[in-house]
Amino acid sequence: MGMTAGIGLAYSAHAAQHRTKQARALMTPDEVLNLPEDEQILFISGLGLAPVRANKRPYFTRHEMAAGYLPNARTPNRKNLNADFPLRGAVVCGHCDTPLTACWSKGRLDYHPYYLCRKRGCECYGKSIRRSVIEGDFERLLQTMQPSVTLFTAARAMFKDLWDHRLATGAERTKALKAELVKVNSQVEQFLDRIAETTVPSVIAAYETRIKSLEDRKIMLTEKIATTGRPVRSFDETLRTAFDFLASPWKLWVSDRLEDKRTVLKLAFADRLAYVRNEGFRTPSFSLPFKALGNFEGQEFEMARPAGIEPATPAFGGQYSIH
């Protein structure tokens, strides 16, 4: 018994002095951190199993998941759903006011696009709306937003009058600036003449300070004259796109560019559109320009005949105010 204990003690002393005999972990922290990319350590809880060193295959390289992350010869990249469903986010469910989502649904032979409500508890929860139906209703709504030719021509004429008035005002402003520039030049010449006639240093210094101020004023006036009353582009070039949009927002919507469709949704409507399945769009909230055009369209107008405090005049076939 003593011999066995002695041998064990001698072995322990030898192991303590020689590294090759020391006990160590299966893997050190450095070895774990420097594992190859295709290897991993698995910890399985609840089964009483020791950690397992195994090979690793990234999930995004698997065939059924690769389409959303990497180019794959057999599986195409995932499409941008916003391009497939331009109304997504701009239309809400008419029952619960929850924005409609959209998806491609797999049929027997092909995939089909749908919009649907995902709000639990809504009577339309999970009930799909074919893309062709809701987007067709939206296009018909846009086509009704075209003002009459007479109204649009009148609106264009009003803008043209405002444009011409602005140009006339700019021309008058330019004329006034040029007159002021002539006056400033005259003042500069007068101060130069005074400098030539005096020998008092303090007076000369005061004149020079005044001349410098006038020269700064000349520079400012010259810059204003160069920019006042001269639009960068003509009336048609400046407002052509805006008038085309107001005349028919539908023409911009049928563009192939998603940015154009988003522009229509932002500029034509003041709020999201409410859509009721099997019924269509509820009354939309138009933006101010289309609201104004909509209020004018189809209405009859006549000369206003309000009464005022001044003496009545025999106008319009009766006794009315001159206002």
Instruction: Give, in order, the helices and strands.
Output: HHEEHEEEEHHHHHHEEH
Overall pLDDT score: 77
Give a quick account of the main beta sheet: strands, pairing sense, barrel closure. 3 strands, mixed
Query: Unreliable stretches, pLDDT < 50, 5 or more residues?
Result: 72-76, 296-305, 313-323
What's the overall geometry? flat
Strand content: 5-15%
How far apart are the first and last residues' alpha carbons, in Å?
A: 130 Å
Would you tell me the structural class of the helices and strands?
mainly alpha
Helix content, binned percent: 40-55%
Number of helical segments?
10
Order the strands across the largest sheet as they lie in space: 3-7-8
Cα Rg: 41 Å
Number of strands: 8
Features:
323 residues; mainly alpha; 3-stranded mixed beta sheet; 3-stranded antiparallel beta sheet; 8 strands; flat
Q: What features would you describe in this structure?
A:
The protein is built from 10 helices and 8 strands. The N and C termini lie far apart (130 Å). β4 (101-106) and β5 form a beta hairpin. With 323 residues, it is mostly helical. Strands 3-7-8 form a 3-stranded mixed β-sheet, with helices on one face. Strands 4-5-6 form a 3-stranded antiparallel β-sheet. The model is unreliable at 72-76, 296-305 and 313-323 (pLDDT under 50). Among the domains are: 2-59, no CATH class; 79-143; 149-236.
